[in-house]
Specification:
Length: 314
């Protein structure tokens, strides 16, 4: 692919009214669709790129990584050395990721150490901190509108003895499949009250207020498609009109049976950077003689932007 086309792909991230994700822009959608499907045929979703923290991504790999992101919305990488949390953040900054979200279980540096915690730890009530599997979701689907998670990174410090792989589904492919099959249902998925998460109340304290929002939305000022979704059956209220029910059922059907699902079992020193694709985790079992599974996670408000100035390295 030429440097010009590479640049066009990145420039697409900055469009607004020309977004391929608006139903009225059929031409832009078809062009985007053709390119995405072509790259998906040419590339392999599980190709592992050698990446390390640095001021910017190596020029030799930028074009390849941009194509990989256009095709799959995620990139799998391997670092030469084992990264600490600050180096993991420095690696992510090369993808233009700077605005970190804080969640309840995050460490002080806003990186979350995903590992099994003891029962006395308050985080043990949340599945990510157990060895249980996690079904399809996008990260931070319960966040309010001003704190949408548009990207996240994972980095495997130690893998479990068995299990623990991640399954991934490019949310852009979800949009593409629905638009091809039933474009009228996209309107339901983009309604602001499609999905409501009741407030998280513990004792008399509101930990998180009730939050309503769409499944698909366009991030202001960009062409970036955001998806909020969870397959959990409790603590979530979906809109119940006929069109919303059909749309939600279609999402569920696609997730049950699609060639677009990728399974990745990260090895130590491997990670994933992505635009908050749909994902889940298989249950896992540690070997007590070895260090337990430990995966760093960082969530970002900004989407991946390889052209962005990475800023000063912390
Ligand atoms: Fe997640």
């Amino acid at each position: 692919m030429s440097a010009t086309l590479d640049h066009m792909n990145t420039a697409l991230n900055r469009c607004d009214e020309d977004s391929p994700f608006l139903l009225e822009n059929e031409g832009a959608y078809q062009a985007w669709r053709d390119r995405k499907l072509r790259y998906r045929k040419e590339l392999n979703a599980t190709t592992v790129y050698q990446l390390d923290p640095g001021p910017v991504l190596p020029q030799s790999t930028i074009a390849q990584i941009q194509r990989q992101l256009t095709a799959f919305s995620f990139v799998v990488f391997r670092s030469a050395d084992r990264l600490g949390k600050s180096e993991f953040l420095a690696l992510n900054r090369q993808f233009g990721l700077q605005e970190l979200d804080v969640n309840l279980g995050a460490d002080e540096d806003k990186v979350t150490s995903l590992q099994v915690v003891s029962e006395s730890d308050h985080r043990s009530q949340y599945i990510p901190y157990t060895n249980r599997g996690m079904n399809w979701h996008t990260d931070g689907y319960y966040n309010p509108e001003g704190r949408r998670i548009n990207a996240f990174g994972l980095y495997c410090v130690h893998q479990s003895e068995r299990g623990g792989s991640n399954f991934l589904f490019d949310h852009e492919m979800m949009y593409l499949i629905i638009r091809d099959q039933a474009p009228h249902l996209l309107k339901a998925l983009m309604r602001d009250d499609m999905m409501t998460i009741p407030a998280n109340v513990q004792g008399n304290r509101i930990i998180r207020a009730e939050e309503s929002g769409p499944i698909f939305s366009l991030q202001p000022g960009t062409c970036v498609l955001n998806m909020r979704y969870t397959s959990r059956p409790y603590n979530i209220v979906w809109k119940t009109d006929r069109q919303s029910v059909s749309a939600l059922n279609l999402v569920r059907e696609i997730l049950m049976d699609s060639e677009a699902i990728t399974e990745v079992r990260l090895e130590e020193q491997q990670g994933i950077v992505c635009n908050n694709v749909l994902h889940g985790r298989r249950p896992f079992w540690d070997n007590t003689d070895k260090p337990p599974r430990l995966v760093y996670r960082a969530r970002y408000y900004d989407p991946i932007d390889l052209d962005r100035d990475p800023g000063p390295v912390a």
